[in-house]
Write a structure and sequence with these properties.
This protein is an alpha/beta fold. It has 2 domains: 213 residues, 3-Layer(aba) Sandwich (Rossmann fold); 62 residues, 2-Layer Sandwich (Alpha-Beta Plaits), CATH 3.30.70. 28% of the residues lie in helices and 30% in strands. The protein contains 9 helices and 14 strands. The strands form 3 sheets. It has a 6-stranded mixed beta sheet, sandwiched between helices. A hairpin with a 2-residue loop joins strand 9 and strand 10. Helix 3 packs parallel to helix 5. 36% of the residues are buried. The structure holds adenosine-5'-diphosphate and magnesium ion. The site of magnesium ion has 5 residues, from helix 1. One of its GO terms (molecular function) is ATP binding.
Length: 306
């Protein structure tokens, strides 16, 4: 079915005693989409995921997966879902290889050629006991099992927090492959730049509430890079360049500047700056904090990012 709603979370609330972990979470994930679930530590990402998985019961609102109730129908839902937690706990005395097969067995899957391919790709030594593995290696084990599982929905809770850049890249490629096969992916992270490339839609959560949801394009204003630059000759035309905001020249000669630039205009702006002979250049991707600041600025009636 086209545009089938795989995951639907509406007005979700969750309290632990007096702690209101979730106050208003709304998420929609369609077939073949990757949804980035972004927010700082303690914002409520894992709690939301645990409700979606039916591990804890919501205190209000609703969560449905494949049109079924996340709590009541969790057994049925789990047959068609793969999950990798942020902190992977594994049986200490099994080897990595035994663990992968065990995880596959538990979800009714078998060790396939793809499993071997993943083990090779992630360069995992499967002969070691789990208790000797680092956090990153434990994560790899869970990721290998998840990626070699054939289901419709994949949920990754901060999956790359222990991975080095090379493995992070493999992860990104494998997520792209799932998407190509029409699978749906929910991906949580507290680092926007780690997941933004992979996601069709991003939902931003802060203090238990989803405060912004949209396509990356619609949030382009939120994904500006900060540029600090020094050139040999004056940066003519920069003030009129498309996608350049908050331009601030640091000297009268206009050879030192700081500004922010829309992600999709970086190339054109760099071409322009090259004409002034770049001497020094530093770009910083937007942090979640920048993003929240912008959000609150826009809330106060100012145009976002201006
Ligand atoms: N079992 C629990 N009991 C009490 N408070 C909890 C429990 N689980 C989570 N919380 C609280 O809920 C909030 C959200 O936590 P969490 O969902 O783990 O955030 P995130 O995954 O975004 O870092 C935090 O304030 C956390 O302390
Ligand atoms: Mg978490």
């Amino acid at each position: 079915m086209e545009n089938q709603l795989i995951l639907d979370v509406q007005g979700l609330k969750k309290s632990f005693g007096k702690v209101q972990a979730l106050t208003d979470v709304n998420l929609q994930l369609h077939r073949g989409e990757v949804l980035g679930f972004i927010g700082p530590n303690g914002a409520g990402k894992s709690t939301t995921i645990r409700v979606i998985l039916g591990l804890i019961k919501e205190s209000g609102g609703s969560a449905t997966v494949f049109g079924e109730d996340a709590w009541k129908d969790s057994v049925k839902i789990h047959k068609n879902l793969a999950y990798v937690p942020g902190d992977v706990y594994l049986w200490p005395n099994l080897t990595g290889g035994q663990t992968i097969d065990m995880l596959l067995h538990m979800s009714g899957q078998t060790h396939t050629a793809k499993t071997d391919e993943l083990i090779k790709e992630f360069k995992l030594d499967t002969s070691k006991k789990n208790r000797t593995y680092s956090k990153g290696n434990r994560q790899k084990i869970a990721l290998i099992a998840a990626f070699s599982t054939d289901v419709d929905l994949y949920i990754f809770d901060e999956p790359t927090s222990g991975l080095d850049p090379l493995n992070e890249l493999i992860f990104q490629q494998r997520v792209a492959e799932l998407k190509d096969h029409g699978k749906s992916v929910l991906l949580s992270s507290h680092i926007l730049s780690e997941v933004e490339k992979m996601c069709d839609t991003i939902a931003i959560i802060r203090e238990g509430k989803v405060i912004e949801t949209g396509s990356l394009e619609s949030m382009q204003h939120l994904t500006r890079n900060v540029v600090a630059i020094t050139t040999a000759s004056p940066m003519d035309g920069l003030d009129k360049a498309k996608g350049v905001h908050q331009l601030n020249f640091k000297n009268d000669q206009h050879t030192i500047a700081e500004f922010t630039v829309d992600s999709d205009e970086i190339g054109a702006v760099m071409d322009l700056l090259t004409k002034s002979s770049i001497v020094q250049l530093k770009t910083t991707p937007p942090t979640l904090e920048d993003l929240f600041l912008r959000y609150y600025h826009s809330d106060a009636g100012q145009k976002v990012g201006e």
